[in-house]
């Protein structure tokens, strides 16, 4: 589906009307219809409740043969998803929201039409449902934002044999080509000297899935530095602390943090945000072989801190540690990382709320405010110094994972905090990157959580 075709300027062209109503206002709204139209709504069991839809024959002489109506929570205050169900069920064609501009609903209209057909031999792309808007300035940013979400979906949905470390590197190469950026890649045994934790986690993988770290730079050198880091574990077996088959079933999504980081960086470059961008993604497969990382090993990090490995299935924080240390060397004004890091965050918050940890209250507040305004709200968890002792090791500077089972998301955040430079404004997203149940505008599968919140915070902070 070509996202650019889904929203077009309203120049008075012929279009089918869309009406929005809620259950509280349905009776009054229906008084303006004729008996046949009300009967048609009744036959479709339409009462105005959220996400209900119906097609109604138009009054003779009023243009198109029919119009559509959708149920929403509040027709006077639209969200991203108010038109999403209509975009999913209506036939291909051109549509206009009756009596008002779609505003934020431009987003869900596009994301509802996302289809990943790359691996289906029998699939045909559906025809486009086009929405008109008179706000021409809103079209380009709305398209870019929806494309960014769909990019996360595509990357996460892609099988790990295709979206391995080399596949992620190919996504970086596309960014470089499209946005005149520069890319430095360190691969395989070359990692051992400067990115030893990345090497230790990824060294057991087959040669064609060799570990690597990608470092993209873009923007004027004298602009404020923004660093974005993403966890790129392209498949997670758990290592020698092997997962069950059930636990491995979704582990293609363990590079979801990398997908978020790539998508956010693309938005920054597309909109020419006045920053100096550093995008870093360590990409590994956490595999099992004779040279796999072992419980009890002690590995010296890029920063110089030694880490005792207590759990090889807590590998994401290890590769992020080296990447965060490298990003900190740029002394960024803001450092954001994304990672599918802990099951504890999902137990606490479920799939829809990404866990957010920050050093500064004002950064958390800005991200939460941007998320609420754009239907992508994160939930803040603490970084309590009280729990740092749970990372103590009798043999090394720290362990990578305690065994007490307490505050797993926050303790993982505390582990990462050790590798972020002192006084750097840092935000950490522990995101799920997967939608287990479809909702209007949000199909089951890979999905973005915290991406839109981060993007709108960056726009507000740095100006675009």
Describe the protein's architecture and organization.
31% of the residues lie in helices and 20% in strands. With 464 residues, it is of the alpha/beta class. Helix 13 (361-373) links the parallel strand 15 and strand 16. Helix 8 runs antiparallel to helix 11 and helix 11 runs parallel beside helix 14 (408-417). GO terms for molecular function: aminopeptidase activity. This is Leucyl aminopeptidase family protein. Keywords: Aminopeptidase, Hydrolase, Manganese, Protease. It holds the Pfam family Peptidase_M17.
> Tally of extended strands?
20
Indicate the CATH architecture of the largest domain: 3-Layer(aba) Sandwich
Beta-strand content: 15-25%
Gyration radius, in Å: 24 Å
Biggest beta-sheet profile: 9 strands, mixed
Q: What is the percent of helical residues? A: 25-40%
Bulk shape: elongated
Domain count: 2
Structural class: alpha/beta
Q: What is the tally of helical segments?
A: 15
CATH H level, superfamily name of the largest domain: Zn peptidases
- CATH topology of the largest domain, by name, is Aminopeptidase
Task: Please mark out the parts with pLDDT under 50 across 5 or more consecutive residues, or reply none.
Answer: none
